[in-house]
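Help needed: design a sequence for this.
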């Protein structure tokens, strides 16, 4: 039995070592998504994220958690157009670039992969398994991250049958975890 079942209350906040928590979270395989947007002052910007999930089917919406210190977080604003791109396994290099695993920064990241502009202006990754075009519906600041709720305005299923990529134990893996 855990502390919640026995005592009926949660353990005191802050009693878990953050390093241990991070190591535990590395064991959880997360689907890889590339968030991308553009603004007139800074151009295109984006990042690779694993903290992305569906939020509601009615209205269609999703949420993404981004670190407060990221360029994406600092440039995110209410009603901003952005995309959530689910790359196929053969697009791992794009996920690496947007994940900061190369020297490419800012607009230079968009030299990886092929990108087109969506209806609302957000960059869309050509050949991704799925692409969600969104507008920021709400931004919630919690601890070290922003929770960005995206209202989905369009979905493209280009290669949904292709193998996805995940991130676990500090590396990209495919669905058969080879």
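Sure. Designed sequence:
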């Amino acid at each position: 039995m855990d502390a919640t079942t026995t005592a009926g209350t949660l353990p005191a906040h802050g009693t878990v070592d953050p390093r241990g928590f991070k190591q535990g979270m590395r064991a959880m395989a997360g689907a890889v998504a590339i968030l991308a947007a553009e603004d007139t002052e800074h151009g295109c910007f984006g990042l690779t994220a694993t903290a992305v999930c569906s939020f509601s089917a009615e209205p269609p919406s999703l949420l993404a958690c981004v670190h407060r210190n990221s360029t994406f977080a600092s440039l995110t604003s209410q009603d901003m157009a952005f995309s959530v791109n689910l790359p196929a396994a053969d697009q791992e290099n794009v996920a690496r670039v947007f994940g900061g695993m190369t020297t490419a920064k800012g607009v230079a990241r968009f030299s990886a992969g092929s990108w087109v502009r969506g209806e609302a202006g957000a960059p869309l990754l050509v050949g991704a398994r799925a692409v969600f075009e969104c507008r920021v519906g709400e931004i919630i600041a919690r601890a070290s991250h922003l929770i960005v709720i995206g209202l989905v305005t369009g979905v493209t299923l280009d290669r949904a049958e292709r193998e996805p990529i995940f991130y676990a134990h500090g590396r990209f893996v495919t669905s058969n975890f080879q």
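The CA atoms of residues 91 and 161 lie 14 Å apart.
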